[in-house]
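Input chain follows. Return structure tokens only.
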Amino acid sequence: MTVYVVKRGDTLWSIARQFGVSVNTIVEANGIEDLSHLVIGQGLIIPQEARAYVIRPGDSLWSVARRFGTTVERLAVYNRITNPALIYPGLEIRIPSESKNYGYMEINAYVEHETGEAAAGYVEEVAPYLTYISPFSYQVNEDGTLNNINDEAIIQVARDNNVAPLMIITNFRNGNFDTQLAHTILSNETIQQNLINNVISNMRNKGYFGLNIDFERVSPADRQLYNNFLRRITTQLHSNNFVVSTALAPKTTDVTTGAWHGAHDYRAHGEIVDFVILMTYEWGWSGGPPMAVAPINEVAKVLNYAVSVIPRNKILVGAPLYGYDWSLPYTPGGEWARRISPDEAVRLAANVGAEIQFDETAQSPHFNYRDENGVEHVVWFEDARSMKAKNEMVANMRLKGISYWVLGEPFVQNWTLLNNMFNIVKVI
């Protein structure tokens, strides 16, 4: 597999000919069936099973392996070479695809239950690439009861496809995460026990595999109360054979202040629960200034801190399946950016005649355009290059896996790339 960046004058035919693959192979791998024309700066995945190479004078199997990013052992096995020292100029060998070379990975994706029956379709479409699916979300009440959600179809599709469903509980109320609601629950053991009983009952009745606790905007003063609650619920869920995970706001040090970060104790979560999901996105967000949603340089800072206090095999790294389209000039408190899928972003660039740029520091694509009213826009989104960089970082750091927010935003390249790079772990 190669990621190729479209240059001026390129066509699908010329690129296919250059790499020795069919046009349809490129079209299907990138989900560009309805794209009117290629966009300068667009990243394309070029799937390749194997390529031919003729040994030249001075070549060794080691030098060839290094040139193509593989190993002597893999070249020897693939070409049935029993003695690597006996290769000779003119010998034609095959260079194997790098498919699955990055090992095993656990993959979670969130899906919004409010999308109704479509949500089950989103899950079924990408089920081969998922370990877990997490319908968002069960909102907790002040007495420890839960607001029910329409998740039966999602769970059924998941289990039919060997995807483990994770139940999510949140302190979400009236359009935001509620600090007082979290305090009410965390400061009262009777309410906590009622919540735990309701969670276990619901998980048994609906067939959930595990739990994801997404309490946000918890008061920093309740940090230890939150840790105590996690110990209590994890012990009881483990005794009922359920796994437990938490969602954590991204941070680079153990800050104990701040509405979003202070109560999230990375070290304690790493000790208590089975795994954590780091919400490493939303640097660029709809109400903020234009920038990459998940710039890799910022994500790396969070991961470097996380692995210092959390076991690597307990960390799932958050990744966005979307971008944003901002109107310019950006004004704080002004118009919020529109969420846009990566596939839609490329179509938009084609339709408006934009050229896609790539920020090497953030490892993220972007482009500018003017709409029909003459208003300037900037779009930051994800593509094969940005996701490959994130995947490689997760693999190189030997982390547990990746967690996507959110299904329903078309991004064909992501699933092509994921399937090519990793063996996806199935736990059911």
